[in-house]
Design a protein that fits this description.
Layout: E1 2-5, E2 8-11, E3 16-22, H1 33-49, E4 54-58, H2 71-88, E5 92-96, H3 100-108, E6 113-116, H4 125-132, E7 136-139, H5 157-174, E8 182-185, H6 194-202, H7 204-208, E9 215-216, H8 222-228, H9 236-248, E10 253-256, H10 259-274
Parallel strand pairs: 3-4, 3-10, 4-5, 5-6, 6-7, 7-8, 9-10
Antiparallel strand pairs: 1-2
Helix pairs in contact: 1-2, 2-3, 3-4, 6-8, 9-10
Bound molecules: 9-methylguanine (9MG).
Residues 58, 62, 96, 115, 117, 137, 139, 185, 187-188, 215, 217, 255 line the site of 9-methylguanine (9MG).
């Protein structure tokens, strides 16, 4: 499998690392605006040198209980950063957004992948993504970030998530989107209990065999903290293990904070696979 955008090809015959770059007020809060951009670019360079091939830029915090961000605020945060990364680096850039305007403005300055945790359900998002004709990650979430962990419920979490992704994909294709631009993500931590999350991780191969690349994001998430009884800062080994298990179960894009450590783990896994 592969992705194509803006005259680039991303080979998904082995897992690729997507490095996380959150550009929310708390992420680089100790700096002024110019230095914030500078620090973010330094962070991008570090992740690329450590083995990331995709940088995921987000201007909206998607943590449980996070407040929503206005369109203008998200545009102000994301678009100049996408433009700056595009000018400096020859990497893949994904933008974590659900807003049609952020998608189209980011595409103008070099975005390669739309990463939408709301699977194109916001106004105009579906038609915009189809028009942009870029690879698009459709992620499953039950509820909204502010309330999603209140009381997650599924009849059968694997079947329910599978049905949701199939339905969103069918709509995308009906509107004229191309199958080769679809990426799937079960949405670890988005409206799911610890048990739901680990069931989805265990059964991830069910999603991977459906014909679309699977993206997995477990990095530092509370499902790991719940098992390890560790704070966010103490979840490095849990995160690397989670990424590796996701790769083993068919994920080909791994969304992580700790790029260098994940890259080492993948190299060992790959050596075993190639032996
Ligand atoms: C933005 N974001 C936070 N967690 C994520 C996950 O698990 N997958 C994707 N696609 N995006 C995420």
């Amino acid at each position: 499998m592969k992705l194509q955008a803006n005259n680039k090809v991303l080979d998904l015959s082995h897992p690729q690392i997507m490095g996380i770059l959150n550009f929310t007020p708390d992420s680089f809060s100790d700096s002024g605006q110019f230095f914030q951009l500078d620090k973010a670019l330094f962070q991008v360079e570090k992740m690329l040198n450590a083995g990331a091939s995709i940088i995921d830029i987000g201007g909206e915090s998607t943590r449980p209980n996070a407040q929503e961000v206005s369109e203008q605020e998200e545009l102000n945060r994301v678009v100049p950063l996408v433009e700056a990364v595009r000018k400096r680096f020859d990497c893949w850039i994904s933008v974590d957004t659900s807003k049609a305007m952020v998608m189209s403005e980011s595409a103008k300055v070099g975005m390669d992948i739309i990463n939408d945790i709301r699977a194109l359900q916001e106004p105009d998002a579906l038609t915009t993504a189809v028009k942009l004709a870029l690879p698009t990650c459709l992620m499953h979430m039950q509820g909204q970030p502010r309330t999603m962990q209140a009381n997650p419920y599924y009849k059968n979490v694997v079947e329910d998530v599978l049905e949701f992704l199939q339905n969103r994909t069918a709509l995308f294709l009906q509107q004229g989107g191309k199958a080769e631009n679809v990426i799937w993500d079960v949405g670890f931590g988005f409206g799911k209990t610890v048990q739901h999350n680990f069931t989805l991780l265990q059964q991830q191969a069910r999603f991977a065999v459906q014909g679309y690349p699977v993206l997995a994001g477990l990095s530092r998430k509370s499902m790991l903290g719940a098992v390890l009884d560790k704070t966010v800062e103490q979840r490095l080994i849990g995160s690397v293990t989670g990424a590796l298990l996701a790769a083993q179960n068919g994920a080909t894009i791994l969304r992580v904070h700790d790029v260098a450590e994940t890259a080492d783990a993948l190299k060992i896994w790959q050596a075993m696979m190639n032996a």
